[in-house]
Amino acid sequence: MLKFGLPGLLLAVVCVALSTGAWSSAASAHAAQQEPPPIETYAASPTVELMELSPSGDLIARIVVTQEARAIAVTRMDTGEHLFLSTLGETKVRDLRWIGEGRVLIVTSQTRAIPFVGVPRSELYFGMVLDLASRKLVQVLDRTEGVLSVLYGPASVRNTAQGEALFVRGVNVDSGLVDLYRIDLNSGRGRSVKSMTLETDDYVLDGEGAVIAYSRYVDFKRRWSMMLPGGRVFRESWSVEAPIDTPRFHGLGRSPRTVVIGADRPDLAAQDTDADTATNLFEVNVDTGEWTKLPFEHHPHALLHHPETHLLVGASRVEEDGVRYEFIDPVSASRWRSIARALGDKAPQLMSWSADQSRVLVFTDIGESGLYQLVDFDRRTADILAEAYPAIPSEQVGAVRPIRYAAADGLEIAGYLTLPPGVETPERLPLIVLAHGGPAARDVAGFDWWAQALASRGYVVLQANFRGSTGYGRAFLEAGYGEWGRKMQTDLSDGVRWLADQHIVDPSRVCIVGASYGGYAALAGLTLDKGVYRCGVAVAGVSDLRRMVNWEGRQEGRRDSQTVRYWNRFMGAARMNDRTLDARSPAYLAEAVDNPLLLIHGRDDTVVPIEQSRIMAEAMRRAGKRAELIELQGEDHWMSRADTRQQMLRETVRFLETHNPPR
To answer: N or C: which end of the chain has fewer CB within 10 A?
Structure first.
């Protein structure tokens, strides 16, 4: 068992951050500030990374951050009494969840390989259970015979007849099985409750923690199957050929014996044009096998379940001006209507709520750098609990405006324009195109630390949701298939031309920046879409498409895996090792680069290997062109460490101010 003390500096910071008087704004001290905050302020970790109400709503757990150190803090809401404070060290915390009223699950991750069982270097997840009564932390799956103490997929918490329970999947190195285990909350040891294999794709638990549905995906057969109870065994209820896009479970339905599944069933429902894929959301009765389409007005991007019963109560959808909610449970709907009326212009986001929904934790970041508030319906109050970035006051947050423009082929592209703080009528300002990753992802309204950091230095920042982005329907997503370096790229430069036509930006002062797929877009902007950008910054960018897909195949041990098929579809490859990808690979086009290039990459990146940036740097050297390469020690794909994230931002701003001065 592990028991931690709290270093004095971190203890002091946590106590100040959690004291009743300091829970309100600390930004007032910066109200008169004219100069923007230091650039490191934007890339620092938020002061609170995760926050969760206990089932009663009486306690709140949070992960607080000081420099690289994380701490778990538990506080009684009514009195402000600190029940527990303990450092977790310089770890990456990914999830925080209550297990009943007396325990908290903390999920962390590390970049590691496990050579003796053939696990390549990847991001591995671990669980710890904090017991408030004993004030001890135990590791999940600790001392479980033959089982790695690594979480295989997300954890599930249930309040069963035998008490609170935690369920996780774990890899048994002796049998090769990936069973579902119920965790002894005192020791961390796991007891197998359901045998599963690597082909077990997903599962759904009822309120008592029993598996009531699971799925199998056989990759080499390209087949997905839904398994439902049939007496003492599970039987295949429905299956479909799914080379790339598989159906997905989304937890329990509106009643205890139903599950929610996203699937393409044209025999049951017409295609939902709001959906990014061909899927509709259905409720399936596990006893009868009956399918019913769920009655949401718009296709949800996420579903919401009751904090105690885990039954479906509503859904959320990312829209142009923020996250919007639709509830099918009348109590939840009434509660949220009250919150929306009070904070509607801030597009509040639901973070956590008590079991009786009398206390609701919400987060807002429209026009501000991030604010956590507790809505108490019994007391009819809304109190500020914490700020994400207290050193960035609202007057130093640049305005974020939704925009729409036509691409060269007429397709409408939506996105966001972040203006320098205090600027209301931009005119011929320098521009940074900040391309998102994915590419099947999207930028959203609200505080984006990277965009705000660049805007604080005097740049207008364009974040375009180019074709292939999610959130705009299936046709828009599929319009990006095969368009790496093609129309997905010109969608960005079409935005530059539109902004220039509006006299918002100076077309001679434009640079492109991005990470992951956005890093590829930055490289492609200097090689495939020439004449638009003065410079480019590629963070964790893909430079050799064919080599990237081949690496994915090696990672999974199969040349024709689902992952390889996914990338070939998006990149437009006909097969594995398709040499036509070379014509859109910046590493093969280094001689075309005429403008300054900065490459930044984390050495612990397990999504896009650092060799992709090293290959581009070497290609530039061979072509007699200059490129800077900065390698970030101990950093992963998501820029999880504040110190290296700050290094990345400092180097990016230095490079941009050198080659595209804001003034």
So the answer is: C
